Amino acid sequence: MDAATPMPTLSPEQLSELLTLIRGADSVELKLTVPDTDRRSTVAALGMDPLDAQLRQVVFFDTPDLQLDRMGVVVRARRTQNKPGDSVVKLRPVDPAALPDELRSDRRFSVEVDALPGGFVCSGTMKDEVDGGDVKEVIAGRRPVSTLFGKKQRALFAAHSGAVGLDDLSVLGPITVAKLKWTPTDFTRRMVAELWFYPDGSRILELSTKCPPADAFTAAAESKAYLGSHGVDLGAEQQTKTRSALEFFSRELAAP
Fold first, then answer.
1. C-alpha–C-alpha distance, residues 250 and 256, integer Å
2. What is the overall mean pLDDT for the chain?
3. Where are the beta strands (DSSP E) in the chain?
4. Gap between the Cα atoms of 237 and 240, Å rounded
5. Homologous superfamily of the 29-254 domain (CATH)
6. Going by C-beta distance under 8 Å and a sequence separation of 6 or more, which residues neighbour residue 68?
7. 4-17 residue pLDDT tens
8. How open is the CA angle 163-158-72, to the nearest 5 degrees?
9. pLDDT digits over 158-178, tens only?
10. CA distances for 163 relative to 15, 45, 124, 158, 159, angstroms
11. What pLDDT is recorded for position 255?
């Protein structure tokens, strides 16, 4: 692990685009994935306590050949330990300025910029609370996918999914996730760690912190300095949890 490895930089054009997206967003989430070879040392260096983590089960819905993914639509549901579950219809990328006012004014819809070393994406998410037991029933194939999504979620999905219906989708998952929220003793910002356990034994550890748009660049500078000073490799190749999950389960469905 080499904390001195340079982080990928944005071009002037990318930086200009990022600034525009941030101004139109509701929040910014700064993310960094950690190589699995560095996972144990990172957990120790940042003072994470695995016993404080909350277990979740995440499932995605798409066609076997990932048609929704190609159209920029993510459909997901989660079960959460000792808490209600949730369902999500997400569009990405989106231009905040092009979204309808009716959608932006809905309290269940949010626009967020996810920024990671060398890249960023702006997404729009419609989220609803659901019963975790209902999510379990859908995963088991005993309940239609559409029953996890409310009227406005279904309308948003229909507007962006072409001829694909919610009940046409395959179950991709589930994946077990351990999520930890904590504030390091030597850092002022609240952080989140998610460890995703893929069925083939691979894992992705993602570190993140969320902030208001006006605080994005200060938060990025402070987080970079903090993580780098604790030996976290800021230049490591980045992985995305959703992309890895979709590709894994798509291959599984295609297998004879």
1. 12
2. 94
3. 27-34, 54-62, 73-80, 83-91, 109-116, 119-130, 170-182, 191-197, 203-211
4. 10
5. Hypothetical Protein Pfu-838710-001 (2.40.320.10)
6. 61, 62, 74, 75, 161, 164, 169
7. 444 567 888 999 99
8. 85
9. 999 999 999 999 999 999 999
10. 36, 49, 21, 8, 10
11. 82
Alpha-carbon distance of 204 to 93, in angstroms, equals: 22
pLDDT at 8: 60
Digit-coded pLDDT (tens) for 47-70: 999 999 999 999 999 999 999 999
Can you tell me the distance from the alpha carbon of 236 to that of 117, in angstroms, rounded to the nearest whole number? 9
Asked if 239 and 49 touch (Cβ cutoff 8 Å), the reply is no
Is residue 256 classed exposed, middle or buried when 0-12, 13-18 and 19+ CB atoms within 10 A define those classes?
exposed
**CA pair distance 198, 2, nearest whole angstrom:** 26
Give the contacts of 115 (CB within 8 A, at least 6 positions apart): 18, 28, 29, 30, 31, 216, 220
Whether the predicted pLDDT of 102 surpasses 70: yes
